[in-house]
């Protein structure tokens, strides 16, 4: 009887953690990069919806604005700078 109660409690805890991970993905560490030459260097929250991301793609840095009606590349640096 006690084993069944403990098993039920563990299963409920696993389900609760899965729900929390889906609701708040920012609590999880970012996934490991596959070495594709692309990395997120930083994110700035502008308001409740919009964010400005600094992305490094194969030596070029791009500022990308997300969360509005469309995503916009604000600035793209020349290669090697």
Overview of the structural elements:
The protein has 81 residues and is of the alpha+beta class. The protein folds into 2 domains: 1-30; 33-81. The chain has one helix at residues 2-23; strands spanning 38-45, 51-57, 60-66, 72-76. It has a 4-stranded antiparallel sheet, with no helix packed on it. Strand 1 (38-45) and strand 2 form a beta hairpin. The chain is elongated and about 65 Å long. The chain starts with a helix and ends in a 5-residue tail after the last strand.
Global Rg: 20 Å
Helical content stands at 25-40%
H/E topology pattern: HEEEE
Q: How far is it from the N-terminal to the C-terminal residue, by CA?
A: 66 Å
* Integer count of domains: 2
Largest sheet: 4 strands, antiparallel
Mean pLDDT: 84
Q: In terms of per-residue confidence, which ranges show pLDDT below 50 for 5 or more consecutive residues?
A: none
Tally of DSSP helical segments: 1
Tell me the β content.
25-35%
Described by the principal axes of the CA atoms, the overall outline is elongated
**Total number of strands:** 4
Classification by helices and strands: alpha+beta
Strand order of the largest sheet: 1-2-3-4
